[in-house]
Amino acid sequence: MTDVSGASADVLHTLYHSDQGGHEQVVLCQDRASGLRAVIAIHSTALGPALGGTRFYPYATEAEAVADALNLARGMSYKNAMAGLDHGGGKAVIIGDPERVKTEELLLAYGRFVASLGGRYVTACDVGTYVADMDVVARECRWTTGRSPERGGAGDSSVLTAFGVYQGMRAAAQHLWGDPSLRDRTVGVAGVGKVGRHLVDHLLAEGARIVITDVREDAVRRITDAHPAVRAVADTDALIRTEGLDIYAPCALGGALNDDSVPVLTAKVVCGAANNQLAHPGVEKDLADRGILYAPDYVVNAGGVIQVADELRGFDFERCKAKAARIHDTALAIFARAKEDGIPPAAAADRIAEQRMAEARGRG
């Protein structure tokens, strides 16, 4: 079901010709009073209500926003399935620069749109939205998670997201080098914001050597001032070309693994927090052909969604951390399945997730 009233020709083309097909519902949201323009995409509810964050980003066009929502929603179906959650996949995007157009009125209007779906979609934080924003949305919508502890929520989900990525790195090290320890491994982290900075803490605690970059100079300085041993480079291109890099961790926006970056990547492992790291189908094979082990993004970055899902039943941090720690075993199982089937790890993860969703549909 797709509400397309008032949609432009480009948006309609994106909806009906997207290679991300199979979505159950796409809603185009507009509230003139607040200036809200948003897209809510529900990919699947086979395993339960769709769960996924709200991205606030200055998309160049509505069609670009729709395409991103479709892609992200599909990814959430696979992420939630691999995390063992009883949730399907959904995602919302709000169009605009959050630094300029985000207001309480706009967030309340957005909450009303989410509420109108009657619980088919549960929202949370993503790029450009924060715990305080979810507290506002929750005033209009009870299907909101990622709220502050003061409002009955679990707070910042980036802590467990970083922990899960760290567990994925340990699994990759075990599979590739026969030892999960990251001591003396050189790890390049692209993006040291909400998740990346917590990941750096885990790596430092284990004795890894760390190289970082971020488009925001203040984010880099916050790390290097606190940890002088951490080295910073100018940009991502310099990071991926760093000699002696063992692990590359993309922790910013998607598309980091593409036709330009993969051929020059020096690392033997890619394991990061960013969503949709593979720029297009086929990149996973390019990585495998170069002998680079790819830890599927939606598997290793699931710590955050594990946390926000748990919030719906009454948050318990230790319970969530224990579940996020199992990302290590899940990643090892994916690597083993990939080797057994002779396919890249991304394809192996997809097969496992699709099997779980298919079994759920069969039971339904």
TrEMBL record:
<comment type="subunit">
    <text>Homodimer.</text>
</comment>
<dbReference type="Pfam" id="PF00208">
    <property type="entry name" value="ELFV_dehydrog"/>
</dbReference>
<dbReference type="InterPro" id="IPR016211">
    <property type="entry name" value="Glu/Phe/Leu/Val/Trp_DH_bac/arc"/>
</dbReference>
<keyword id="KW-0963">Cytoplasm</keyword>
<comment type="similarity">
    <text>Belongs to the Glu/Leu/Phe/Val dehydrogenases family.</text>
</comment>
<comment type="pathway">
    <text>Amino-acid degradation; L-valine degradation.</text>
</comment>
<protein>
    <recommendedName>
        <fullName>Valine dehydrogenase</fullName>
        <ecNumber>1.4.1.23</ecNumber>
    </recommendedName>
</protein>
<dbReference type="GO" id="GO:0005737">
    <property type="term" value="C:cytoplasm"/>
</dbReference>
<feature type="active site" description="Proton donor/acceptor">
    <location>
        <position position="91"/>
    </location>
</feature>
<dbReference type="GO" id="GO:0009083">
    <property type="term" value="P:branched-chain amino acid catabolic process"/>
</dbReference>
<dbReference type="InterPro" id="IPR033524">
    <property type="entry name" value="Glu/Leu/Phe/Val_DH_AS"/>
</dbReference>
<dbReference type="InterPro" id="IPR006095">
    <property type="entry name" value="Glu/Leu/Phe/Val/Trp_DH"/>
</dbReference>
<feature type="domain" description="Glutamate/phenylalanine/leucine/valine/L-tryptophan dehydrogenase C-terminal">
    <location>
        <begin position="155"/>
        <end position="364"/>
    </location>
</feature>
<keyword id="KW-0520">NAD</keyword>
<dbReference type="GO" id="GO:0043837">
    <property type="term" value="F:valine dehydrogenase (NAD+) activity"/>
</dbReference>
<dbReference type="InterPro" id="IPR006096">
    <property type="entry name" value="Glu/Leu/Phe/Val/Trp_DH_C"/>
</dbReference>
<keyword id="KW-0547">Nucleotide-binding</keyword>
<dbReference type="InterPro" id="IPR046346">
    <property type="entry name" value="Aminoacid_DH-like_N_sf"/>
</dbReference>
<keyword id="KW-0560">Oxidoreductase</keyword>
<feature type="binding site">
    <location>
        <begin position="191"/>
        <end position="196"/>
    </location>
    <ligand>
        <name>NAD(+)</name>
    </ligand>
</feature>
<dbReference type="GO" id="GO:0000166">
    <property type="term" value="F:nucleotide binding"/>
</dbReference>
<dbReference type="Pfam" id="PF02812">
    <property type="entry name" value="ELFV_dehydrog_N"/>
</dbReference>
<dbReference type="InterPro" id="IPR006097">
    <property type="entry name" value="Glu/Leu/Phe/Val/Trp_DH_dimer"/>
</dbReference>
<dbReference type="InterPro" id="IPR036291">
    <property type="entry name" value="NAD(P)-bd_dom_sf"/>
</dbReference>
<keyword id="KW-0101">Branched-chain amino acid catabolism</keyword>
